[in-house]
Amino acid sequence: MNLENVKALTEILCTKGLSAIEVGEGENRIRIEKNISDTVVAAPVQIAAVPLQPPVPAEAPAPAETVDEQKDQSVDFNNLINVKSPLVGVYYSAPSPEAENFVSIGSKVKKGDVLCIIETMKLMNEITAEQDGEIVDICVKNGDIAEFGQVLFKMF
């Protein structure tokens, strides 16, 4: 492996926001890691409380839902399931560029449904749901490099 390849790997590490990258060529292997303590920590963000629903005008009829029905529709964000990448590779949200995405926010999935593909060393690895649920967040963009253990989806 020459110096140009090492420089290119270092550039990928920095531009893609990775913490480490490892590549092998024949019997040679190289691992480049970013020192986590050197990263800048952002200042705390202040969050203002805002109402979840706009106020209902006095002349508008009351909503038909009862309190029990509203509880059933709410999501407990403390109990979300993180679907993590089992390997390092390129994240693909669809089986081909012209095909529809496997899932989107709000998709209901069953155990075994394909969520995405991670390409590693020209091998396409299907990532499947380990349980039934609903996708509430997709944390990776199509074509990005997914790290081992990186959260790909959040579901409940």
Q: Compute the CA-based radius of gyration.
A: 21 Å
Share of β-strand residues: 25-35%
* Distance N to C terminus: 45 Å
Order of helices and strands: HEEHEEEEEEEE
Shape label = elongated
Flag low-confidence runs.
37-43, 45-51
Strand order of the largest sheet: 3-10-8-5
What is the total tally of β strands? 10
Helix-residue proportion: 10-25%
Question: What is the residue-mean pLDDT, rounded to a whole number?
Answer: 76
Total helix count? 2
Q: State the secondary-structure class.
A: alpha+beta
Biggest sheet overview? 4 strands, antiparallel
Task: Give a topology summary.
Layout: H1 3-15, E1 20-25, E2 28-33, H2 67-73, E3 81-84, E4 89-92, E5 108-109, E6 114-120, E7 123-128, E8 133-138, E9 145-146, E10 151-155
Antiparallel strand pairs: 1-2, 3-10, 4-6, 4-9, 5-8, 6-7, 8-10
Describe the model.
It is elongated, with a radius of gyration of 21 Å. It has helices spanning 3-15, 67-73; strands at residues 20-25, 28-33, 81-84, 89-92, 108-109, 114-120, 123-128, 133-138, 145-146, 151-155. The protein has 156 residues and is α+β, with helices and mostly antiparallel strands. The protein is built from 2 helices and 10 strands, in the order H-E-E-H-E-E-E-E-E-E-E-E.
